[in-house]
Amino acid sequence: MRLLSWNVGGLRAGPGPAGLGALGGDVICLQETRVTRDLLTEPLAMVDGYNSYFSFCRTRSGYSGVATFCKDSATPLAAEEGLSGLLAQPGEGGSVGCYRDLGGFTPQELKALDSEGRAVITRHRICTSAQQETTLTVINVYCPRADPQRPERAAYQAAFYRLLQGRAEALLRDGGHVVILGDINTSHRPIDHCEPGDPKTFGEHPGRRWLDGFLCAPDGQPGQGLFMDTFRLLHPRQPYAFTCWRTDTGARLTNHGTRLDYVLADRALALGELQDARVLPEVPGSDHCPVLAELAATFLPAPRCPPLCTRHMPEFAGTQQKLNRFLVRVERGAGAAGAGRTCRGTGVGRGGTARNRRRLPRGQGDLLSYFRVTQGQLRIVTAQNAPGYRTQELAPDAPGQGGPEPDQSALGHSGQEPFQNVLQHRIQELTQDALERSGQESSQDALRHRAQDLARDALGQNRQALVQDTAGQSSQELAHDALGQNTQALVQDTAGQSSQELVHDALGPSNGLGPEELVMVFSPGDPGPMAASLHSNTARWRAVLPGPEPPPLCPTHREPCALRTVRKPGPNCGRRFYVCARPPGRPGDPRARCDFFHWASRGRS
């Protein structure tokens, strides 16, 4: 038989069901699945050739969790969630038993220890190499981590270790064999750690002291411990056999990690049936790698799956549908792509009411779309310190650009008129008011003031449409459309000015920027002015905000260093420093980082 354990760091984002078959284990124990009951989907729960058993965290979503996948040829006799027995299910095969040695805990403590979904127990019938039938209990466990910043988690870990030991030893004394697979979250010996430090103080860790009493050495006397580390039984002095690495430093490349994952078997089973024990660092997909043990014994499958099996869950057994089956998914872009597109399941087609056919409001666009420069697009670039400074581009489906026309009923509903009507009415109002208020100003000054008011008011609402609407009109046509029959004198004053010059005069000088920097309409073949303006603006911003100073070069590898921040509490907390960007590793490893260190300046960095 082949027993395998793997901390996947999230079942949905990890290897997935397809990766389980490639591992080839008869019993595969996964830890840190980060799946709750409501997030469990059929592809994750129902894997061809396997029956699965999950334990979910009941206190947090997307946290902890374990799952045991058994081949159909290794179907267990019974399966149970948790270590305390409080979560055992009624009926045949719903509990494994042996709870008599758990009297040192209160019911509240047992409930808290099983609330994070850290254990699944399955009991199997096996045939040993001596052709004797017996039972094998497999405990899939994800032990909690002792966070140095949270003292209560260290106490929680110690209590969990005591509960695990009490239940495992009770099962072993009841008869048969017991195997514990999982992430123990403690490296036992200095050989199991990349930076053990002082060997005299290494063993003072509470988790290591617990392992010293729980395990027996390969050459130890009976009674020291009831379980054995299968890997160290076969490879007592193999160094660098790590199973966990830090991903933020790339330590897996240099194999700079720790051994936290174990296959622990009772002494009789390990000495009599163990054939192989390995770590599999070549398997990607998580910050941990799988560990396995091969035994000479074989599984004898049970006739039916226990009640804990996911096949019996109502949502997967066909007796109950999940809530998401009743929800309707809206097609992406349905509100902005086409007027005739509707949501599925609403019962409204093309013959629906105008309210039902109304297009949904356009969602917020990508911020980068305001700064992209592509040929054939219209942009307005104003001075950086002008009020309302922004850079925009015409949407592909804006009116007049070949896209669908806006829904007039929708515009009327929102209290906005088409921009052409707003523009025309605004010009007429400003012109009439100016003619009545002041007869002292010249016709050209009056038109200029009116154009200034018009441009500022209209550009504040829709600068794109103003430039688009006036791009092909002369000032005479613009004034004639706005003033009607009373504009002959004003038209003569502005004769010969293009619409761009008129808008530039209306906006006035802005920090010396020319009209080509304020309003630009360019053709697909001539993007030069826009590119020059953007280059000029970029240079100005860089002069004001130079950004961080370039990182120094590592003197050993001549490569840019990485910027880090001190997180440890103390006088230097929050300060930043430069180190070699390569991953940590053993001394002498050319792939590993060197000893370069340099504090970053407190100014630009």
From TrEMBL:
Transmembrane segments: none annotated. It is found in: Nucleus; Cytoplasm; Mitochondrion. Signal peptide: none annotated. The record marks 261 as: Important for catalytic activity. Mg(2+) binds at residues 7, 32, 183, 185, 287-288. This is DNA-(apurinic or apyrimidinic site) endonuclease. Probably binds two magnesium or manganese ions per subunit. Keywords: Cytoplasm, DNA damage, DNA repair, DNA-binding, Endonuclease, Hydrolase, Magnesium, Manganese, Metal-binding, Mitochondrion, Nuclease, Nucleus, Zinc, Zinc-finger. Residues 338-361, 384-415 are annotated as: Disordered. GO terms for cellular component: mitochondrion; nucleus. The record marks 288 as: Interaction with DNA substrate. The lineage of its organism: Eukaryota, Metazoa, Chordata, Craniata, Vertebrata. The keyword Metal-binding applies. NCBIfam families: xth. Its EC number is 3.1.-.-. Initiates repair of AP sites in DNA by catalyzing hydrolytic incision of the phosphodiester backbone immediately adjacent to the damage, generating a single-strand break with 5'-deoxyribose phosphate and 3'-hydroxyl ends. The keyword Mitochondrion applies. The active site is at 142, 183 (proton donor/acceptor), 288 (proton acceptor). It catalyses: Exonucleolytic cleavage in the 3'- to 5'-direction to yield nucleoside 5'-phosphates. Pfam families: Exo_endo_phos, Zn_ribbon_GRF. Residues 554-603 form the GRF-type domain. It is an enzyme of class 3 (hydrolase). The record marks 185 as: Transition state stabilizer. PANTHER family: AP ENDONUCLEASE (PTHR22748), DNA-(APURINIC OR APYRIMIDINIC SITE) ENDONUCLEASE 2 (PTHR22748:SF27).
